[in-house]
Amino acid sequence: MERLRYVAGAGPLEHELLVQESAGSLAALAGDAAALLLSCKRLLQRHPSSGPLWWLCARMLCSDDPRREGRRCVRELTGDETPQHLEAELPEAGVVTVLGWPELGASVLARRGDLRVLVVDAGGEGDELASRLQLLDADAVPVSDRGVSAAVLASDVVVLEAGALGAGGFVAVAGSRAAAAVARHAGVPVWVVAGVGRVVPAGAWAALAGRLAGAEPWSADEELVPLELADVLLRPAGRLALPGHVVPDFSEAPELL
Q: What is the chain's percent helix, strand, coil content, to nearest 5?
């Protein structure tokens, strides 16, 4: 229970780490369905925008063996092939704009030494990523938040990472909607990266989006971006042109709603 309290009370975490810690903690409650459900709800109250956490909780609750299902989820998440597809699809010697520190895309940008990466300092993490890429001899340029439009206009593609994706939209770091809107107006392609567990069914998406709707959205770290502003979706199975049919990664768990 102390471990669960720690995970629930932690600040923003990478989705993979959040799922690993949550799966390990929830496994201890596998024999108590009521306690497992309550703990899943509390985790989602604290981390409502994490598609992989919704995915983990739904799968553990709907399984006959929650402990085994949790381990399976962790293996699937750590084996996510979405970054490999992104690496293969990015244009050679292209200019790419990203925002903040994309969990799945950062390692790809480090490996692709032919790219020029414009890193917008969304959420205060962009400058750190740019510095890290520069140490690896990558051509990375830190861009302040006020330069997002200029960066998009100078790019061949804008790559946004979805923490969760559902009916008509996706959750991304603040500033992503502005970047996508400028790109659409200028004819610059917008790619959305949505790895394992990040596409949620309709009910979970409605609950997730509702929890993100705060009184002061302009001060939030994340925002909802209409999917109509994107051109390409990159998933574990590869590239999907938008608009297109996107299948959720898990079945609805009504008890979570």
A: 50, 20, 35
